[in-house]
Amino acid sequence: MAATDNPPVLEVRDLVKHFPLTQGLLVKRQIGSIKAVDGVSFDLRRGETLGIVGESGCGKSTLAKLLMALERPTSGSVKINGRDMAAAKGRELKAMRRNVQMVMQDPYTSLNPRMTVGDIIGEPFEIHSDVAPKGMRRRKVKDLLEVVGLNPDHINRYPHQFSGGQRQRIGIARGLALNPEIIICDEPVSALDVSIQAQVINLLERLQNEFNLAYIFIAHDLSVVRHISDRVAVMYLGKIVELGGDVEIYDRPAHPYTQALLSAVPVPNPDGREGRERIILQGDPPSPANPPSGCRFRTRCWKATPVCTDREPLLEIRSKTDHLSACHHAESHDVVHAQ
Amino acid sequence: MKKTAADVLPTEGGLGNEPLLAVDDLHVEFTTRQGVVKAVNGVSYDLRAGETLAVLGESGSGKSVTAQAIMGILDMPPARIPKGAIRFRGTDLLKLSEEARAQIRGQRVAMIFQDALSALNPVFTVGWQIGEMFRVHRGMSRKDAQKRAVELMDRVRIPAARQRVHDFPHQFSGGMRQRIMIAMSIALDPEVLIADEPTTALDVTVQAQIMELLAELQRESNMGLILITHDLGVVADVADKIAVMYGGRIVENAQVHDVYRAPAHPYSKGLLESIPRVDLKGHELYAIKGLPPNLLDMPPGCAFNPRCPYRQDNCVSSEPPLYEINSTRSSACHYWREVLDGSHG
């Protein structure tokens, strides 16, 4: 239920993050740069979920760090409610950071084993003491535990006393503590057992409806992304190569990379598996330190022509498609027939 | 020197109707400080040449421990096998001497592990590590072994094998490392290959490459493949038959098409229903309630009963046996008929 009438809570424009590559022990010379995120733009509205998919190394997690203001962008801007994060300082930056929270991938390493659950969830209040005055904090933590479906009486327990799914709930409660408008979920269910994943996804959806949250949902499980997302961005080597509504991306993918990615996902139904179309990409993605000229996917693409080497395709709506794609030869093609 | 061992080694002759590998009522337990953990409680499955068996289960279900028992790589103690048999071409591996098992391990029954980076030795070149199979088991010279390593790297489609044979594991990507693991495991033409979550750490595009490679190698050599996984998509893609494990037991044994059409155990049914479906977008996902069982403190009766929507009183009082539904199918649920009917409806 993407609300399109309200203004976006998050605006990302031409965001770039290059990490320097240096050589030499005493005198470090810069010999190049890793182009982790290289010109990414999108909007996100309240109550909306943007899914981000792509192979490891495509820049998903660097993008998440930039949105959290944990990394400074090389260029480009991240605006929250119209204010540029890079321009904000001091008190204002603190308030903006409060508004964007994160749920981490691994609930086993992202919770401090020496802290009680109450201290973990209450820690954000130490930094942002204006959200909950000292006397109110325990009460608030108990409320949060209840919201994420844990027993409020377990406030004094330690992380090891909980299962993986419960720990992820603790991580979610910590993310909710400061009433953010945006939550970045970086692979929130991939470390969990299959039978537990559905529980956590349902919780995330319920919380979104309850608090009108905007989610950035980073995951490699494409069927989970489809279930939870309103729009999906496909990333390859630091760029968004295709962006559209979930139906547009999954049923009418236009970029060859999206098509290959979707066709590589095993379908949980053995009927008709022999006849299924499968595009198997050869090799690995090129290094982000030295991406190919023109279109970055051309080295693995079966549609590549000389124009792909010479001209970089922009992310735009092309003649044979109805949503944004960055391919000179974009053409909708249903690789995985809806079943 | 190993004459006595060689005498009892399984022969390579025709199999007739015998399965290549049969696990029969296997029990494995671990002694820990908190007590005895029964990780595997009476698991049985069999595998024929050219066949792919998928063993599906979540962490702690006993799927990897069963595989390690087949390979004979469990640390004993703390592990103990109080009961059961593992028959490879009719010979019970558990009754063989360690020497005789070493003849089988890696040569005739081989295994691929999940995490290729930690399974490879970082201080030797990959060529040396692949060649080790030939030097140790076949007594080849270094030079010949190196030559065979290059051939194998070609066979698992590692580009520029002749140069890369001198590289170290960290110089390869995750997918390429898994290919090196596969090259090592198929070096001696095993009859059974056990792949323990071979693609879990990999991207979907690389996963597709690896699964295709395994299928191709299997077609060429007609080996039996045991694929251990928790991914219902991968199972549907490649398996002939499936064993679903829960709490150290097999809860459903079936041909792969049968399970996906109509599961006969509430756990397999719950897993299949919790897959996000396109037509149910916007609805809450079906979720199996509760948590996987604690192996130190198993619930009485059926291990799944605290999470089961079909539970009746006798599920708590008596552990269901593996009921035979037909010649290829069994389910460890007192109410398999109801589950099966519900699945059709």
TrEMBL record, chain A:
One of its GO terms (molecular function) is ATP hydrolysis activity. Residues 10-262 form the ABC transporter domain. The keyword Transport applies. Belongs to the ABC transporter superfamily. This is ABC transporter ATP-binding protein. It holds the Pfam family ABC_tran. SMART domains: AAA. GO terms for biological process: peptide transport; transmembrane transport. InterPro entries: AAA+_ATPase, ABC_transp_ATP-bind, ABC_transporter-like_ATP-bd, ABC_transporter-like_CS, Oligopep_ABC_C, P-loop_NTPase. It comes from Sinosporangium siamense. Keywords: ATP-binding, Nucleotide-binding, Transport. PROSITE patterns: ABC_TRANSPORTER_1 (PS00211), ABC_TRANSPORTER_2 (PS50893).
UniProtKB/TrEMBL annotation, chain B:
Gene3D superfamilies: P-loop containing nucleotide triphosphate hydrolases. SMART domains: AAA. CDD domains: ABC_NikE_OppD_transporters. It comes from the Bacteria. One of its GO terms (biological process) is peptide transport. It is a peripheral membrane protein. This is ABC transporter ATP-binding protein. It comes from Sinosporangium siamense.
